[in-house]
Known about the structure:
The chain has one helix and three strands, in the order E-E-H-E. It has one helix spanning about 40-55; strands at about 5-20, 25-30, 60-70. It has a three-stranded antiparallel beta sheet, covered by helices on one side. A hairpin with a 2-residue loop joins strand 1 (about 5-20) and strand 2. The longest helix is centred in the middle third of the chain and has 13 residues, at about 40-55. The mean pLDDT is about 90.
Amino acid sequence: MPVTTDFISNKLQVRSNYGMVDGKEVTKSKTYANLKATAVNDDIYAVAEALAGLQAPAMEEVFKIETTLLIPGV
Length: 74
């Protein structure tokens, strides 16, 4: 049975490192929604770097979160 997909959304998540607090490493993430379906990974990363440049903590990781609907064939 073939499965088709239907694009739902793309999101950008930037995880930042706040350093050690009370002996534990603290990381926080911010998620930005409504990325275009046609957005190229290099452009998404460039936006993440620009956003991280406006924040005090260091950027640690960048995630592109893709949501798709899987539709079973008949």
